[in-house]
Design a protein that fits this description.
alpha/beta, ornithine cyclodeaminase, domain 1, 2 domains, 16 strands, 25% strand, globular
């Protein structure tokens, strides 16, 4: 039996940003309705260098396991932060049907989730992406695919300029200008607080994508208490996302947080007023990876992929 392998370029050819956006939306809804299931990601840590993550999910006739790394210091030595493989199986027979580059799957679904939360919970207005690495570039590309103008900012000015050009946006004059936009997506390593106490404005929406593990944070814990809170998955977010600090401080309880999938499925309320501050905490879900992998598999016959026999 021949199994297709999707390298990074193959994943990007198979699934456009708009297709990723719709696939991730469908994945969130299926998860909220109990049609797709997953377990919280398992961390195998080697801090401070980084960590390894095992992420299983099942739904839509397929089962998935993603084995992926996060080593934030890698770009400094010419290596990617995220590497790994996604293994996709037929859920009825257990047979392997595809192997995909985890970095490409991760960036597509991260960009899609960031923009999906912003479109669902934001009130519109100016848009900014802070952090122009692979995942930040994917978020900018998704906004662009939806025809939404944006500004970007990064500590590396050349990288910000490249992403702005690719997404048809502009580079924000300063980080503070970017962080004051009506809709902000942050995709940083999570080593530095971006939103200090008292900094969020009435009506602002922030999609916090960088703090996806213990010890990371892009927002002060005091600011979490000021916002209406949403997350991708409570179990993950309460232990390894931005919300974990609020839980530990006694400022956030389960009833304070709404999962995005329930809003998309029409089971929970989203933004309630123009003045409400909304915050989306993303930890990254295996069901998002499953949505992208299934979308890629549907295009396998069109791409002339490398295959291997099992």
């Amino acid at each position: 039996m021949s199994v297709p392998f999707f390298g990074r370029a193959d994943v990007e050819r198979a699934v456009s940003p708009l297709e990723a956006y719709e696939a991730v939306r469908e994945g969130f809804v299926a998860y909220a309705r109990g049609e797709w299931t997953m377990q919280p990601k398992l961390y195998v840590t080697n801090y401070p260098a980084g960590d390894f993550r095992a992420m299983p999910a099942i739904g839509g006739g397929h089962a998935l396991l993603k084995w992926v790394t996060s080593f934030p210091g890698n770009p400094g030595i010419g290596l990617p932060t995220v590497t790994g493989l996604v293994v996709l199986n037929d859920a009825d027979t257990g047979m392997l049907v595809a192997v995909l580059d985890a970095g490409a799957v991760t960036s597509l679904r991260t960009g899609a989730a960031a923009v999906l939360a912003a479109a669902t919970l934001g009130r519109g207005g100016s848009i900014a992406v802070v952090g122009c690495g692979v995942n930040g570039a994917a978020a900018a590309g998704t906004f662009s695919a939806l025809g939404l103008p944006l500004a970007v900012w990064d500590v590396d000015g050349a990288r910000a300029a490249a992403v702005a050009e690719s997404a048809g946006g502009v580079v924000a004059p300063t980080r503070e200008d970017a962080l004051s936009a009506d809709v902000v997506v942050t995709v940083t390593p999570g080593r530095e607080i971006l939103f200090a106490a008292g900094s969020l404005r009435a009506g602002q929406h922030v999609s916090l994508m960088g703090a996806d593990g213990p010890g990371k944070a892009e927002i002060a814990v005091e600011e979490i208490a000021r916002a209406r809170l949403f997350c991708d998955d409570w179990e993950q977010a309460s232990h390894g996302g931005e919300l974990a600090a609020g839980v530990e401080a006694g400022l956030v309880a389960r009833d304070d947080v709404t999962e995005l999938g329930r809003v998309l499925a029409g089971e929970a309320e989203g933004r309630r007023s123009d003045d409400e501050i909304t915050l989306f905490d993303s930890t990254g879900l295996a069901i998002q990876d499953l949505a992208i992998a299934r979308g890629a598999l549907a295009k396998a016959g069109e791409l002339g992929l490398t295959t291997f026999d099992i």
